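User: Quick sanity check before I run a bigger batch. Here is a single chain. Can you write out its predicted 3D structure?
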Amino acid sequence: LRASLDEKVTTTTTTTTTPDTPTDPTEEDQKVVEVARDADGERRVVVRRDVAPGELLFAEEAIAVPYDFSGFGSGGACFHCGRVGSDVVSCAFAARVPKCCGVAAFAFCSRDCERRRRPAHEKECAATKLLLLEEGPSSGGTVAPFKLVLATRAALLEEEDDDSEDSSGDTAATLKTHLADVDEAMRRDVEAAASRVAKALGRDGTFAGRVRDWTARVDVNAIALGDKACGFAPKMVAMCNHSCLETATHYATWDDAGGAARVVVRSVVDLRRGDEVSFCYLGESDLAEPTPTRRDLLRQTKHFLCRCPRCRDPDLDRRCLLLQDDDDSLDDDGLLLFQGEKKKETPHPPPGNDVLAEARRVASAAARLHGGRFAVAVAATKEALADVLAQCAGNESDAVAAYDDAEAHLQVCRPGSADLRRVREKRRLLLRGDDNEDEAAPPLMQTIVLEVKTWDPLTEAALLEDLAPRLRQLQPLEPTFLCRWDPAASIVPLAFGVNALALSCVVVEKTGATTKNRHKDDDDDALRIDTVELDLAERLADALPDEIQSVDVGAAS
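Assistant: Done. Predicted structure follows.
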């Protein structure tokens, strides 16, 4: 955990080689962002040069904690790094619990996660057990337990960091808190919870004060890391201010081995040198509220008065909220015209088609709410619109255009994500069906045999009765293929008395292509099903990295 405070904030140049792994800078002029102060002395993050939509601004390691504490082995997020795994991975590591407490909910998600997080967990174990198990979820009163765990971890890191030359204390001191703005009851709850944490860890009042201050900082600056975890990145992410018309988006990534969450920040609009990098702290439904409602919500939850451009400009707020057909500054999809030329008008839905009309309305409203910026919410509404159009005869070209719009938004906001792959696959299947209306050909099908080699020699019973059932839970990443596992497995003798496990399955295409397409795309189909074989072999190896050494495709037919 110490890396989250000691590690330098990672920034990048335009020569980034992978979507979420920025180049580690060695010179000051390589940085894309910097911290500046406005005329009132307020700190803000700005870009140092012109930036295009989708460009990587920076990435930072975060302290992470799940919202609930069901445990990684039960399908929840890892208690230590916030990663969510597949069912087979969660099942495999359900027994990797810390020896200091033996609590299943505190299980590590991988060997790397255990190596990196175990020393820190041993220091916090007594406090987390007190907050989550002995006192229960309501122990913090009005303070959520996950926020207290985050604050405890940050306080322990700050304590270790005091003697470091590269101290983060100055950075932490500049982060906004809410203690002066909350009511007396909440202030008492925070101070009482901080005192209990300090007592559980055998610390004095000074440490209790640190937990109290970090609880206030976390309450204002914590961000979501996916659907099941929350995180806190104090170096740069926490310094980005809120705006109801955000200029950047953020999301979390984890490596396959787990152990560290990274917050990746990308621009969603053209930025000029000196422009501010801002996030939206509100949910999509909250953005659809007028300025007074949004301000009240932010005041109650984040304890500040929003002065973003949308909240200061009533006309801009009305344009984001209202569907004005006579507004020439917006195109039919709600995109501001400065983003490009006006799109070709789409036909109005036929009378009585309420589903299609509603899908168009929602997509247009989402685009207006985000002021023509790229956004995940806009991508979701465009995908939903395309799904409806694809089911309406004569609207296939409009459906493809809507999928293209959704892909464009995801390519900027979530490159390489499962959502982006899903949209691309839907578009591909729609185009494949449009090319020909002939009778559908039989689905692609191939039988493969996979040989699984383990790190440690296992008995035949362990291979057949324990390892094989867990591996049969896996399915290919390619959404159009299904893996039908043979319930029977066999043993393949290797050298020196070591055995390998042989599993066979049939990979079947879920949706058959038309006859004409099948002839035209024979080479492409063969490549796709071969890719599924390799993908399945890699998934088997990655699912249980501590047990499986390698997986080979033994035969295919």
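Confidence is low (pLDDT under 50) at residues 1-19, 21-27, 323-352, 512-521.

User: Great, the batch can go ahead then.
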